[in-house]
Amino acid sequence: MSKALQRDGAVSMLADVDPVTLTVIEKGLQQVCTEMDLVHEKTSFSPIISEAYDRANGIYHREDGRMIAQGELGLPIFLGQLAVTTNTVIRTRDDLVDGDIVIMNDPYLGGSHLMDVRMIRPFYYNGRLWAYLSNVGHWRDTGGVVPGGFTTRSTEIHQEGLRIPPIKLVKAGEMQDDVLQLILNNIRVPNDSLGDVKAQIAALSAGAKRLTALLDRYGENLVDQAIAELEVRSERLMRSHIETIPDGVWSAVAHVDSDGIVNEPLTIRVNLQVSGSDMQVDFAGSSAPCAGPLNTVWATTLSAVYIALKHIFPDVPMNAGCFRPIQVEEPRGTFLYAEYPSPTAGSAAEVSQRIIEAILLALAPAIPDRIFAPPAGTSGNLSLGGVDPLTGENYVMYYFSGGGYGGWYDGDGISNGCATIGISKTQPVEVLELRYPVIFEHYSLREDSGGAGKYRGGLGVDYRMKLLRGTATASFMMDHGRQGPPGTLGGLPGAANEIVVSRDGQAEIPEHISKGEGYVMRPGDWIDVKTPGGGGYGDPCERDCGRIAKDEKSGYLARTSSFMPSPGE
Description:
The protein has helices spanning about 20-45, 45-50, 80-90, 175-185, 190-220, 220-240, 300-310, 345-365, 430-435, 545-555, and strands at about 5, 10, 55-60, 65-70, 100-105, 115-125, 130-140, 165-170, 175, 250-255, 265-275, 280, 325-330, 380-390, 395-400, 440-445, 460-465, 470-475, 500-505, 505-510, 515-520, 525-530.
């Protein structure tokens, strides 16, 4: 037996796996997941997955479902969720055999909102359960009150769509047609959804093939040892980063505009207690469970904490070891720990980003040279559904847009960046115009939207979408409409989200500013959206005059803008 290195309860078996082989196996496991991502993307019917990459695939441990690897192209919000999902399947389904695939979307069992549908496949090697392959894809529709599922006025989960417990969609390699038909009969666009079902299954099949090849080459014992060693190394690196944070309790508050029912803000209060290489996170003092669909399930709250720390310390490899030093108290009794039958439609896309914002604000004074100001912090969810008179078929269009990232300690924020929870991109408007009866009349960066600072926030976007034909129902779930993303260390806030809906020539601002549902649209009606800019970093008076001149020349801010001091001032 080689000499073991013991630290914080983790055992390293480094001598059993040479560094070169360890790296090759690590990258091989990641490549299995990345290939699953690509198969999922390339075979999906929905632009949400094929164009915007709203999905993730990973390998999870046979014992407890902890993460072994996740694809580099998978959305970060799913990194904690899929581990909880897989653990749920391990605990509740002891009847799985080789070739089975479980489907589920229950938010309370490791999910988020009902549109994120998960599949879990036990992976067998040489007749033995070796791991689980799990994935998730955002489906355009799973039924419910509004097309696309982003209801803002639901008061219980049953109003949001079809809730699927962990059930077998595939048994020993055979599709269960009765289960499939039950699901498709509760979806507004069953034909396209069938394509997405098959894409997820194909991704799992690709993963099984590639993981088998990896084990054939290196042997399951060596790969097992490598996985254990990678967890130890990831934990050690995360601990070394946490040790750079001064000991103490670091606190901050962030706010959600409203829950869609009661037009008052919801409060997220975070306390980070740092002691050496350990961090404890609690949300004591956050708002109680809310009436509307902004309640957030435990798996999503947990994922949001992990994402925030990964944004700050991006070099830590993603596996179960990465998160061992971070203990998160279950926020029972708050809207950050949703329990049945609380509605959850806005949890993953919106509330998770407010959690990340609170953590960034809390740590800003502790480690200013590692922090960036809060980003736009909304996915800009916009759904439109109806019947296209040109084809006579139902359609559901789900669209999310970018916003500004916050300024950081060494530069300005990114403009039109993806949501903090995603490695995704906005669907090309040309693709949407080809598939749906809409036209985008304009689409541009939003002038003057970045918060002022020594380093300014990035710009949001400004677009208008108009319905061309037929009748459709629009809904939107966004945030940061009351106040823009705050600045950090003296920086100013970015511009707030703005939505205007025009119907029959009458323009209106939604009652809840960033949230609304059931808007019946007719030809010529339009929705205008201006997404938030990122917060500024540092004192605006310290901004370099050359940067200001460049911003003006690029059209990022008007010459008369009050966001920035003029050159020479």
